[in-house]
Each structure stands twice: as C-alpha cells, then as structure tokens.
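Explain the record.
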Amino acid sequence: MLLIGGFFYAQKTPPNLKVIKKNLENKKSEFNFEKLIFKYKGLPKSLDNMEAQHLYYGRNFQKTVSTSSTEFKNLADAFKDKDVDETINLAKEVYGKDPTNLDVLLILLRGYDTKKDISNFSHHMNQLKSLTDAIKNSGDGKSDKTAYVVNSVGDEYILLNMLNIGQDYNRGSQSANGAMYDVWQKGEEKLYIKVLY
C-alpha cells in the first residue's frame, strides 16, 4: 500500500492555466484565490500540491509587483546596500501586495536569516517550499512535453539553483507546441524548462 501511495505522489501534474484561472476566480471553488492565500499566509505547510500550483501559476492572473517598479527597485537597492532592517521592511511591503513572488520570499529569507529570526524564516521557507514544489511537480524536464513550467526567467534560475544545474550547462532556446522553451544541456544530458511570459 505504501508503494501505491508513493506512485501517486511522484506523478507530475502540468498546470492547466485556463482551469487555474477559472478556479481562482470562482468564489465557491476550493481553489478560490482568497481562500488559498489565507491558508498560504497562515499555514503554508498545510497546502497540498494542487493548492500550491494554483497559487504559483495563478500569479499570471493577479496584480503583481513588477521588478521594474520603484518599490521593487528600492527593495533591491536596500538589499544590495546590506541594510537588513530596511530590506525586511521594504520586502514586507512588497510581500503584502505580491505574497507569491519568489524573489521577495528569497530576500525575506536572507534578511530573517541575518537577523537570526527563526520563526519568520521558517514561515517564509515553508511558503517558498510550497511554491517551488509546485514548479518541481509541473514536469520532469526530460522533454518539451514534460518540461518544468515557470512563470519567469527569474523563477527559472531559482529552479536551476534548486536542481544544482550550474554554469557547466549551456542554454539554448527553442519554440515548440506554441511556447518558448529553454533547453539546458551538458553533454547528452538535457533539461527542458517552459517559461511563461
């Protein structure tokens, strides 16, 4: 019985963006955005993969903070200047508007790690893990049909870091199935990542 449970857990579930959008907007859906974001902010460890997938890929249908916005640039400047308190304050402001932004979560984690704030660090680490697990469960990266799916190039690099794909891989891009794919190759080994824009 344990083997069967492991089999179902290991299966990859590519995101269906049309269904995700519909579910997030439907007030009666168990995947309604307000319900999921409440759970994500309060008890991120309790999210299952489908809930995390709806939150991560649902960013495409929510108002998010652009990395070219003034508030994000101010956050990046504080981070570069190593002003930990200002970085945390600005990151919390951006997080309030865009809580599923992986870059903001990573910045918060760095700040809380520096401050040795274990409680906040653990909370945001659980959020990051939920969202990145959704990415890892979107495919296996072995072909364009089973590619990992990410929302942005920035998220692609976060995934590459998690998978320990380093500078010894070469990147190429190809279009297939009506989308753009980045193909990371080292010798005969290839990793496919579909980047949503």
Remarks:
- The radius of gyration is 17 Å.
- Residues 140 and 146 are 6 Å apart (CA to CA).
